[in-house]
């Protein structure tokens, strides 16, 4: 793989092994480019969510990561922490919020920890308006909000944080059609702003609609990485073709 100054993630021959010898990854290699949406798709247990966390230097407990190259924004993933330059929206947004605290108090803590103290709350509310988040949610407890609303609040924080890389782990799972539409439009807008987006999902129709590159994973291996042309993915491998055929059944 030829690296350029536009490469934000470069992984060569990366393997994750449990203490018991089980391989979670088996020598994966891929690159991600600046300012594009890079889709990661595959069945459950393929190692795609592990990939999202690994960009932060995090590996599953009781596991060891080895590689020939693993750089994020030009830095070795295990020797330099790049937290301020990355942002993750987890698969379950409930885990990002304390159910018995108000959104206001939790966002205030986020501002302090992120060094965003000088940003006005009005700036946040303007983003909320764009994401169709009711302003009265500001004083409500997290437990009273839906998963889609929490997902959008996390995306509003990503707008403010303006990271170089945004990682989204199954961001549309369980969302209603309205929330899904807003999330996908927001992802497209963030990429247009120059943000690199890692979009982890099992829904091929979604990555076809917004990704520029797609990596297909299966059982801890990268099966192929291919471009999306005119919102259409044309896999070259047999497994990739099977995923494509399966997705057509639900259209």
TrEMBL record:
GO cellular component: plasma membrane
Pfam families hit by this protein: ABC_tran
SMART domains, alphabetized: AAA (SM00382)
Alphabetized InterPro entries for the sequence: AAA+_ATPase, ABC_Ni/Peptide_Import, ABC_transporter-like_ATP-bd, ABC_transporter-like_CS, P-loop_NTPase
SUPFAM superfamilies: P-loop containing nucleoside triphosphate hydrolases (SSF52540)
Entry keywords, A to Z: ATP-binding, Cell membrane, Membrane, Nucleotide-binding, Transport
Main localization (coarse): membrane
Protein name: ABC transporter, ATP-binding domain protein
């Amino acid at each position: 793989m030829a690296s350029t100054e536009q490469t934000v993630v470069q992984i060569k021959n990366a393997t994750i092994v449990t203490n018991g010898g089980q391989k979670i990854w088996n020598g994966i290699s891929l690159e991600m480019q600046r300012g594009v949406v890079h889709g990661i798709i595959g069945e459950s247990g393929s190692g795609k969510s592990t990939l999202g966390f690994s960009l932060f230097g995090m590996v599953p407990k009781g596991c060891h990561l080895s590689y020939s190259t693993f750089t994020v924004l030009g830095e070795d993933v295990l020797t330099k922490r790049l937290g301020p330059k990355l942002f993750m929206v987890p698969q379950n947004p409930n885990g990002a919020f304390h159910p018995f605290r108000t959104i206001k108090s939790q966002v205030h803590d986020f501002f302090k920890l992120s060094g965003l103290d000088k940003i006005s709350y009005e700036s946040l509310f303007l983003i909320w308006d764009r994401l169709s988040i009711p302003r009265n949610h500001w004083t409500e407890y997290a437990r009273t909000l839906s998963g889609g609303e929490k997902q959008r609040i996390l995306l509003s924080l990503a707008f403010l944080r303006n990271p170089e890389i945004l990682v989204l782990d199954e961001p549309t799972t369980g969302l209603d059609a309205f929330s899904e539409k807003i999330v996908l439009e927001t992802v497209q807008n963030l990429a247009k702003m120059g943000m690199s987006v890692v979009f982890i999902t099992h829904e091929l129709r979604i990555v076809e609609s917004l990704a520029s590159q797609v990596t297909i994973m299966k059982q801890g291996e990268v099966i192929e990485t291919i471009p999306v042309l005119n919102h259409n993915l044309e896999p070259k491998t047999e497994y990739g073709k099977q995923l494509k055929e399966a997705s057509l059944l639900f259209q």
